Amino acid sequence: MHITQLNRECLLHLFSFLDKNSRKNLAKTCHKLLEVFQDPLLWSLLNFHSPVELKKGNFLLGPALKHLSICWYSETVKVCNTEDWMKNSFQKDFCKRHENTVSDFLLDVCNRCPNLLSLTLSGCGHVTDDCILQLLKNCSNLKSLKLENCVRITDHTLKAVTLHGASLQTFHVDFCRNVTQAGLDRVREKCPSLMLRAERSANMIPDSKPEKKLMLEKASRKLVQL
User: Fold this and answer.
1) Structural domain of residue 34, as residue ranges?
2) How buried is residue 219: exposed, middle or buried, by Cβ count under 10 Å (0-12/13-18/19+)?
3) At 115, which helix (H) or strand (E)?
4) Are residues 76 and 165 in the same domain?
5) pTM here?
6) Which UniProt key words apply to this protein (predicted)?
7) What is the pLDDT of residue 15?
């Protein structure tokens, strides 16, 4: 029996075991398999491990998407999560290439995936408060929002959760060093039933402004002299 002789349900089941690249390659072989690839039921869950994967076009975004994860664990995360004023010219050029990749992708999710239930972002150093605000406004069914090591996330995101996260049940801001304890306390006060976790966030050193850099360097030199 040829694979194309299987019914739609069987083909969807087979496709579900394949990664995104394999699904795309198989879809190129014939019209019937392309139709299976384009079936919304196949795309309720998406996982990405680098921003580059967001541009490959080997997946579909649509109302069927329920769970989305973008977790970037490569060494490049260290560069992207470094304050701009501490980066050299090479590092700035590197970050510029994909600065808006994740944010633009998430804005596309806002417009095309209103039924999203869970979002996990890890190491996405360029994601901003405004991007999360738009997502909370457009994906009103979102129940789980987990942010880890997203350095541009601040108390503005915490405020957005209190205003637009009515459906949220779980909210993590682990290793997000620019949220404050006061902001976390406001979330706990206004959303007492929300499962909030902020491991090593408010207790971490926030981004220093450029004018504070000299102060830190002077303090370090004094310690060395002592």
Assistant:
1) 1-42
2) exposed
3) none
4) yes
5) 0.81
6) Leucine-rich repeat, Ubl conjugation pathway
7) 95
